[in-house]
Design goal:
- The protein is globular and about 55 Å long.
- It has a single domain, classed as Rossmann fold.
- About 50% of the residues lie in helices and about 15% in strands.
- The longest helix is centred in the middle third of the chain and has 29 residues, at about 100-125.
- The protein is α/β, with parallel strands linked by helices and about 250 residues long.
- α2 (about 35-50) links the parallel β2 and β3.
Length: about 250
């Protein structure tokens, strides 16, 4: 299998790359930090003996996305699977008062994904097979006072992927939405999270790889988040406001 991972330096993406390299995948790793991505690619190449590529990818540099994906195809020949793993939590309080921060959250989490997918989707649609997997979040299932700028961007991504999944179903292309709960990563290190509900990136990565190999539509990880979010979504708005869930 030939797998493209965007946002390859994130904790979850690195864990996914380790698993896929162990299975023998050829990997194309890309992120804004090229030096770190190159180190990761070299590590996986030496450790597992798989072919790896490294490149710079900026989710908000929209004009570069077409040439970037063209280079991916030139280097690998074909792409069987794509994982979109880049994201930006941002400063929620600042985003409420400063549109530049809100725009950054929206652009990285939503518009960047849509932009690169406009180049990936026609390729896979014409090819008639492939897997597109993107990391959204349970935060996109319902707006909460503490994180609705980020949650709204992830919610938009989830809806976009849902429509794309319906469009590509008959074309033989799978589209999988990954919805992690709280994950112990550098992005969430400053947050006061309930420890019992915080998962390791490796746990989430295993669920992602399983979905990429076996298929799925919306995958909550760990699985108990499906029940948690079903309860949260079912709470009537007047009661939900009073609960003020953070």
């Amino acid at each position: 299998m030939r797998t493209l991972i965007l946002g390859a330096n994130s904790a979850i993406a690195r864990a996914v790359a380790e698993i896929l390299a162990g299975k023998g995948d050829e990997l194309y790793l890309a992120s804004r930090n090229y030096k770190e991505t190159k180190r990761l690619a070299s590590h996986l190449n030496v450790k597992y003996g798989v072919k790896t590529h490294a490149a710079r990818f900026d989710a908000t540099d929209y004009d570069s996305h077409g040439p970037f994906f063209g280079q991916v195809l030139k280097d690998m020949g074909e792409v069987d699977r794509v994982l979109i793993a880049f994201g930006y939590l941002g400063d929620q309080e600042r985003a409420i008062r400063d549109f530049s921060e809100a725009r950054k959250i929206i652009e990285i989490n939503y518009m960047g994904a849509v932009s690169i997918l406009t180049h990936i989707v026609p390729y896979m649609e014409e090819r008639g097979r492939g897997v597109i997997t993107a990391i959204s979040s349970v935060a996109g299932d319902r707006g909460r006072g503490s994180n609705f700028p980020y949650g709204s961007a992830k919610g938009a991504l989830s809806i976009y992927l849902s429509g794309l999944r319906n469009r590509l179903h008959k074309k033989g292309v799978k589209v999988i939405t990954i919805k992690p709960g709280f994950v112990d990563t550098p992005m969430t290190a400053h947050l006061d999270l309930p420890k019992r509900l915080v998962s390791r990136p490796e746990r989430v990565a295993r669920d992602i790889v399983k979905a990429m190999e076996r298929g799925g539509d919306e995958v909550y990880t760990p699985g108990y988040w499906r029940l948690i979010m079903a309860v949260i979504k079912a709470i009537p708005e007047p009661i939900f406001k009073r609960l003020n869930l953070r």
